[in-house]
Amino acid sequence: MDVTEIIETLRRLREGEPSYVRGEVLGSMTVDAPNYLVEAFKIFINTNLNDPKLFKITYELERACIKWLSEIMHGGGYGLLTYGGSESNLTALYVLRELTGGDVVLAPKSAHISIRKSCKVLKMNLIEVGVDEDFLPRLDDLCRLIRKYEGRLACVVMTAGTTDLGVVEPVELLVKMCGDVKYAIHVDAAYGGLIAPFIAESDPEIPVFDFRLEKVYTIAVDFHKLITPAPCGALLLRSRELEDLITFEAPYMPSGRNRGLLGTRSGGIAATAWAAINSLGTEGFKQLALDLVSRAKYLSSRLVELGIKVLKEPKLPIVTFNVDNSDKVMKRLWASKMYVYPTSIPNSLRVVVGPHITYEVIDAFVRVLSNIVRGSE
Ligand code: PLP
Fold first, then answer.
1. Best of 25, 82, 86 to mutate for ligand 1, by most ligand atoms within 8 A of CB?
2. Whose CB has fewer CB within 10 Å in the chain, the N or C terminal residue?
3. Is 74 left (phi over 0), alpha (psi -120 to 50) or beta?
4. Residue 377 has what pLDDT?
5. Quick one: which atom of ligand 1 is closest to the CA of 230?
């Protein structure tokens, strides 16, 4: 094939995949990044964040992104950009295992599957605690286990923006309840990290989950769940000491070292995150977060009007609802190119309100869903 044919073929093949613009991607956390952020990625695509001596400017872009995120999370500017939440979670668990020498990870059942996967990879012992009827972690159980495993504990994982419901888990309350025990918390804010801090400014019910809490050592935040092309995430660290734990000797590299669990990391991730930060600014991120939450609340209220049970009034832009025969309903929605996701909660389906989910998309979705649940489609 010649190059033109290859590109035309790929364009045609992509046409066969779900479209963001037509509002088909409803359940995924991926987004339709604006062109300038794709362009930003492309400009730096062939630089390597793991070669900071050769690609000094790329490294500076990464530092600027970590600094900006750290300001939001009240951190000291330590961390690295990653290829997303799974890598950030794996790296955090590794760092905290190395720091503490502990092999036990405590996490509510609401934690993302990458926590379970990371424990398997790192041969750590995951102990899960349940969530209550309001989908919040059972803090009594967590505190009891924290005491029980003190000395063997690598970390407790809490999530700011759970995968199923977008719940920001009560990290501050956990810290208060557990008192003076030695442990570290990893906060998986892969989904909520760029949304919850801005919503919290006007919603006191959103708990504090950042470095202001002494027990918080690591925080995962993803750009690609909100605005940039994938992959693009970050892992923030409490201190330089933690950064040292993910710095490995690499005699063949000009810097003599390798940062993070991956090797080559495209500098495109730094360029696209930098472009997003500098075009939106902190205020722009805040407006986007507020806008998405308003749309999610609108969707939630439309569903309630239809008599559909919304599992939890959305605080972040995820709407999870309960329907009888959810498998069948999902199949019908998919047949209408409305790709909602299942969740781990029985008979419930999820819509993630990303920037491409406009009010028109929501209205069209509600129309189709309403016909399906009333049995007329
Ligand atoms: N953490 C949370 C809370 C998530 O919802 C997800 C993905 O949905 C991840 C981590 C993993 O992110 P990624 O798929 O970018 O690795």
1. 86
2. N
3. left
4. 56
5. 15
Angle (deg, nearest 10), helices 268-305 and 56-73 = 40
Q: Supply the pLDDT for residue 376.
A: 61
- Architecture, CATH, for domain 3-34+281-373: Alpha-Beta Complex (3.90)
What are 16's two structure tokens? Answer: 């066969």
Long-range contacts of 372-376 (CB under 8 A, 24+ apart): 372/329, 372/332, 372/333, 373/306, 373/308, 373/323, 373/329
Q: What is the pTM of this model?
A: 0.98
Using CA positions, which residue lies closest to atom 11 of ligand 1?
Answer: 85
204-215 per-residue burial string, b: 16 or more CB within 10 A, e: under 16: eebbbbbbebeb
Pick the CATH number of 35-278 from 3.30.70.20, 3.40.50.720, 3.40.50.1100, 3.40.640.10: 3.40.640.10
* Residue ranges of domains in the chain: 3-34+281-373, 35-278
Q: Mean pLDDT over residues 58-71, rounded?
A: 98
* 374 CA → ligand 1 middle, Å: 34
Could you read off the pLDDT of 279-300 as tens digits, one per residue? 999 999 999 999 999 999 999 9
Cα–Cα distance, 325 to 180 (Å, whole number): 47
Residue 325 has pLDDT above 70, yes or no: yes
255: exposed, middle or buried (C-beta count within 10 Å: 0-12, 13-18, 19+)?
middle
CB 180 within 8 A of CB 211: no
pLDDT, tens digit, 9 for 90 and up, residues 12-48: 999 999 999 999 999 999 999 999 999 999 999 999 9
